[in-house]
Amino acid sequence: MKKPTPLFILSLSATLLMVGVGMIVALLPQQVHAKTGSLESVGLVASVFAFAYLLAQLPISALSDRLGAKRFLVIGYMLCAVSGVVFFFTETAGGIFFGRAVQGIGEAPIWALGPAILSLAYPSTKGRVIGTYNAAIHIGLTAGPLLGLLVASNGQGSLPFLIFAVLCLFAGLCVFFFLKPVAVPLGQSRPSFAQFVSLLRQRKTLILLLGVLLYGAGYGVFLTVLPVSLASTHGFGATAISLLFVVFYAAISVSQIVAGMLSDRFGQTGFLIWGMALAAVGLATFPLFFGHWAYIPLGFSSIGLGMFCVASIAELNEEAPDTLKGAISGSYYFFWSAGYVLGPLSIGAISSSAPLIGFGTLAALLGVQALGLVRVRS
Hints:
The chain has helices spanning 6-24, 27-36, 39-67, 69-89, 93-121, 126-151, 159-178, 193-200, 203-223, 225-233, 238-266, 269-285, 295-319, 325-351, 355-376. Helix content is 83%, strand content 0%. It is built from 15 helices and no strands. The relative contact order is 0.14. By secondary structure, it is mostly helical.
């Protein structure tokens, strides 16, 4: 009997986790608000997770290059399972915040080390497999809320948290029993901090990581500031906003699969530049479209973000030696998460008084980044 491939195991495990995340992500703010009656406390649900995720990213990824990525993946899934148990049993907002911190630490290796392992296991088709892995994550995020409605149609109850814990446990066991460790080719030296710093100081790498920061900002804005703005400027209701999330996740998933496959054949440069440019144009022009027609430019913008995402991960893993795959993937998601936190805060502050200026600013930054990529590669 043929053993399951690393791509299948990693994609299956990530999908299971993200289905669970999608089931609980809307319940946590509601439960915190019910326990505290404070909107400020609701904001901490996202902030605590992001802060823990950000702090854990680089240390875990760097250690994975020395000790092996598989063990950190398993630990990550188990920590996520623990967080689900905490959510299920806690009766206080503090317990939920603690669970979110544990979940943030747990998810850090899952997002970063999956691409690192795949780039080692599939060196000639890293774009295709990384695109498939990231698409699996977004498919899980799309399906999770729908399944959550079936389990808790009124948005109440704790059963989704228990299901989340079980899904994470099963995902961790899949990795533990079926993922074969990928070895670094013989003859390569142990990773060094000097090597890592030298890689980060390269102009090409710095420009690319700046783009990742902006990609994270765009991703965060799409999920937070943009839906609120569309409700007031385009008359979007709850159903229309839910459909926006479906369009966003579906566009990113499909574009990552397609761009990943094509980048293996034609190189990453075109997908980096045109992905960033498409994201900028879509975000700049959506105010010109009335009502639900805004889905068209926003869909193209989502496709652009997906193209840049898969091409940038593949490019960074191509530049890094095999001994630094974990560290460079961790750096990628460190910059992504920094943008994910700072982008909505800054664009939201501008958009609260002038929505067109806020989104126009982000579109302009994305456009400048596309020009920067053209210049550094010309």
